[in-house]
Design a protein that fits this description.
The chain starts with a helix and ends with a helix. About 50% of the residues lie in helices and about 0% in strands. By secondary structure, the protein is mainly α. The longest helix has about 30 residues.
Length: about 100
């Protein structure tokens, strides 16, 4: 019963048989139509989204944010031996400055 209804519905919609194979692969579409679709998606979806994201970052950068207070927890940055450069107590980036 369901097969009969599905076949009648597909005939009404203009499809005589279900599409077999790989319907989402690039080979299922013609080259010109697919290229046009991706070009339109680029211009009307991707580029406006990039613009909105850039505006969002710019507007958020205008506000001054307070940094949270750094808490020196005793279990962080535990060293069991000195660093192999300088006096052994400072990280490499500090010794270069």
């Amino acid at each position: 019963m369901a097969v009969v209804v599905a076949s009648r519905l597909s005939r009404l919609l203009g499809r005589s048989r279900p599409q077999l194979g790989r319907p989402m692969s690039s080979a299922a579409y013609s080259g010109e139509g697919s290229a046009h679709m991706w070009k339109m998606l680029t211009f009307f979806v991707t580029l406006p989204e990039v613009g909105v994201s850039m505006l969002n970052v710019y507007l958020k950068s205008l506000k001054e944010h307070e940094r949270p207070e750094v808490v020196a927890y005793p279990h962080l940055r535990i060293r069991t031996k000195p660093f192999p450069w300088g006096d052994g107590n400072h990280t490499y980036s500090i010794t270069l400055m």
